[in-house]
Every structure is written in structure tokens, then in C-alpha cells.
Design a protein that fits this description.
With 206 residues, the protein is α/β, with parallel strands linked by helices. It has 2 domains: 70 residues, Winged helix-like DNA-binding domain superfamily/Winged helix DNA-binding domain (Arc Repressor Mutant, subunit A, Orthogonal Bundle); 113 residues, Rossmann fold, CATH 3.40.50. Helix content is 45%, strand content 18%. It has a 7-stranded mixed sheet with strand order 5-6-4-3-7-8-9. Strands 1-2 form a two-stranded antiparallel sheet. The chain is globular and about 60 Å long.
């Protein structure tokens, strides 16, 4: 399979959102120019991104909104649901758990873990927060595919090691730490501080 850049995958996710908005508005077709205008890119970039995954649309007629929605969902692996575990029931973990769009896109949080004994046993949306000692057994029992890690930096690597050993093959890490995972495990890092520093640089450079 050809190597696809992360930026192209992010734009594909953006196109998916734009197509969902167009579908909700009753649009049956959409052009690369319309996608480009709504997404802040160029029509050439839209066509280039989509061409990475095959042939879409017809020249002069644009793309069928429903067909392109279906194709992009399939490319992104959203045609089926994913079982997700959340490790870390602090303020960030609570905000992530409450994010409604996860479930709408097929990411179903099936287990929540925390090391704080005061939180263990409490209920979040029908789920009981489990002690971190239960990670290994619960991840296997629930057949977890993806784990969201929202723990302090000094605990992140140990948590990730346990998750991987238990069978998790996708990690979304919010801890400000450099983590190592074996080949075959996908790791995505979300560092809010880095993003804010990037904004600070952009504002300071004007």
C-alpha cells in the first residue's frame, strides 16, 4: 500500500465533516471547488488527496455526496465500530469521555481506568471507573482496540506498555511524554502545550 502522509489523512477527515454538513443541508452533489472553499484549501489539493485512494466523481458533474461519504468512511475505517478504553479519569479524561462525537463516529468507550481510589467505583455514563490494576484483564475481556491515555507524564510509558501487552493496537496519547511502542502499534500524540506554543509563535510573528 502506498504511504499516505498524516496531513492527507487529516484533510480526509476534514472532507468527511464537510460532506456530512452538505448532506445535512440536502446537497446531492459537491464539487472539488466547494470542498476546497469550505475547507480552506485548493480544488487541486482536494483532487490530489482523493486520487490517492482511487477514482472519484465525474468531470463537470462533481462528486455524489452520499457516495463520497461512504468511500471516505470506508477509507478511514469508520464502517465498523471501535472498542475504546480511557485511562485517566481526571479533568481531561472527563472532558474526553463527555465528547459526544466519539460515539457518533464509531468510537465506543467501553472501559475507564484510574489510579485514584476515590474515583474507582464511581459511575460515568453507566460505566464504572475501574482501578488501574484491572487494565490487563479488562482490556482483554472487552477486546479493546484503541486506548486514550490521559495520565501524568511520569506514568504514561508504564500504562502504554501494559495496554500494548494486553492487546491494544492503537494509542491516542495526551500525556506530555515521548512514548515508545513496538512495531505494529499505532501511536498518536496530542500535546496541547505544543499547539498553544505554535499559536504564540504565529501571533508573535505578525
Amino acid at each position: 500500500m502506498k504511504k499516505i502522509s498524516e496531513s492527507a489523512v487529516r484533510r480526509l477527515s476534514l472532507y468527511l465533516r464537510l460532506l456530512q454538513e452538505a448532506d445535512a443541508a440536502g446537497a446531492e452533489t459537491i464539487s472539488s471547488g466547494e470542498l476546497a472553499e469550505r475547507g480552506g484549501t485548493t480544488s487541486a489539493q482536494v483532487r490530489k488527496d482523493l486520487s490517492l485512494f482511487g477514482s472519484f466523481g465525474k468531470r463537470g458533474l462533481g462528486y455524489s455526496v452520499q457516495e463520497l461519504l461512504s468511500r471516505i468512511r470506508s477509507i478511514l475505517g469508520l464502517q465498523s465500530s471501535w472498542r475504546v478504553a480511557l485511562v485517566g479519569a481526571g479533568k481531561l479524561g472527563s472532558a474526553l469521555f463527555s465528547y459526544r462525537d466519539f460515539e457518533a463516529r464509531g468510537f465506543n468507550i467501553r472501559a475507564v481506568f484510574d489510579s485514584d481510589a476515590r474515583k474507582v467505583g464511581t459511575q460515568w455514563g453507566g460505566l464504572c471507573i475501574r482501578a488501574d490494576e484491572e487494565i490487563d484483564a479488562m482490556v482483554r475481556a472487552e477486546e479493546i482496540d484503541i486506548a486514550i491515555v490521559a495520565v501524568p507524564a511520569d506514568a504514561a510509558q508504564q500504562v502504554v506498555d501494559r495496554l500494548v501487552k494486553a492487546g491494544v493496537r492503537g494509542i491516542l496519547n495526551f500525556a506530555p511524554a515521548r512514548l515508545k511502542v513496538p512495531r505494529g502499534v499505532a501511536l498518536k500524540n496530542v500535546d496541547v502545550t505544543l499547539e498553544l506554543e505554535g499559536l504564540s509563535f504565529a501571533l508573535n510573528s505578525r
